[in-house]
User: Which sequence fits this backbone?
């Protein structure tokens, strides 16, 4: 699997088409892809505060729920990312994937490339308990990935789990990571 930041960024900027269908959305996230010191690509994820009523203690991409003044999903994703991580600038930002959850919500995702890893010390501690940077090379280890079938309202869903850095990533975040890893493996 290609893990060099510049190669991954080049491939996505040359080959990524935005989805043709827009189903609307209830939440939006940015998948921040950063250049690590070793020139590998890395992901920024957040561990949500355990005090939050929705998804407390879970690992996720920065983003959140659509609010009344948000004009579109890109605005929601950027607003939430700046609110959570104080990151507002991306070298390349493009809508990537709509992800449907079993709870009838649609998450709109954007790939956001950042050529120089930002300082992540000023994150919003009322919403985020920690920030994780994960090297793409970690995903080459297939032992960290498992799938489980979960039934919800008589429908069986395949849920992707990633066991990384003393954290388990699953749900919509695990599903988006799985799609991203599978795509990067084709580069």
Assistant:
């Amino acid at each position: 699997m290609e893990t060099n930041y510049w190669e991954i960024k080049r491939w996505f900027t040359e080959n990524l088409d935005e989805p043709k269908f827009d189903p609307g959305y209830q939440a939006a996230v940015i998948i921040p892809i950063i250049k690590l010191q070793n020139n590998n690509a890395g992901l920024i994820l957040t561990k949500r505060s355990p005090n939050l009523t929705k998804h407390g203690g879970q690992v996720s991409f920065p983003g959140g729920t659509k609010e009344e003044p948000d004009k579109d999903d890109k605005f929601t994703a950027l607003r939430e990312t700046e609110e959570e991580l104080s990151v507002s600038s991306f070298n390349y930002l493009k809508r990537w994937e709509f992800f449907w959850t079993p709870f009838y919500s649609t998450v709109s995702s954007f790939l956001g490339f950042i050529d120089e890893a930002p300082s992540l010390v000023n994150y919003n501690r009322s919403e985020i308990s920690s920030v994780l940077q994960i090297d793409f090379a970690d995903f080459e280890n297939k032992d960290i990935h498992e799938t489980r079938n979960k039934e919800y309202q008589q429908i069986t869903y395949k849920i992707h789990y990633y066991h990384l850095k003393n954290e388990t990533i699953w749900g919509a975040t695990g599903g988006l990571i799985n799609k991203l890893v599978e795509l990067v493996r084709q580069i």
About this structure: The chain has a mean pLDDT of 89. Residues 60 and 173 are 6 Å apart (CA to CA).
